[in-house]
Write a structure and sequence with these properties.
This protein is α+β, with helices and mostly antiparallel strands. Helix content is about 30%, strand content about 20%.
């Protein structure tokens, strides 16, 4: 997550093509690179100016924590709070550890943010309700005009 850069979809972030380093990096660990992501890559991100570096073992098969994060450049480990959420100072959100898939928690509204699937379903419901609401409003207008 990089703030203050062009808003466009990127498959990967090529630092040589960006005006500044992302503030928040979350890597999903494949078994083939997890040692590199824990060590060398974290050092590289720190040198590039990344403020938070996170790794996630989505399989649960690796000999590492399922989710770990560090505040850089101090290399300070991010610890779960009393509710099991890991706060990101960069995002102003926390990662919920108890949900699969992992979810972001918004402390301002005191709830987890919806997943992409939940957001899409909500948009479909609103569109369906909006259509019927529009039809109802038209019928009501016609009734009032008569």
């Amino acid at each position: 997550m990089a703030f203050g850069v062009e808003d466009r979809l990127r498959g990967i972030c090529k630092m040589s093509e960006e005006p500044k380093a992302p503030g928040f990096v979350l890597e999903t660990l494949p078994p083939s690179t997890f040692r590199n992501d824990f060590g060398r890559k974290r050092r590289q991100h720190r040198q590039l100016g990344v403020r938070e570096y996170w790794i996630h073992d989505s399989s649960g098969d690796l000999p590492v924590p399922r989710l770990a994060g560090w505040r850089l450049p101090a290399n300070e480990a991010i610890r779960p709070d009393e509710d099991g959420r890991m706060p990101s100072a960069v995002l102003g959100l926390a990662l919920c550890l108890r949900y699969r898939p992992r979810r972001f928690y918004d402390p301002e509204v005191r709830r987890c943010l919806p997943s992409q699937e939940e957001e899409a379903a909500q948009r479909r419901r609103e569109a369906a309700e909006g259509g019927s609401a529009a039809a109802h409003a038209e019928a009501r207008n016609a009734e009032l005009e008569a």
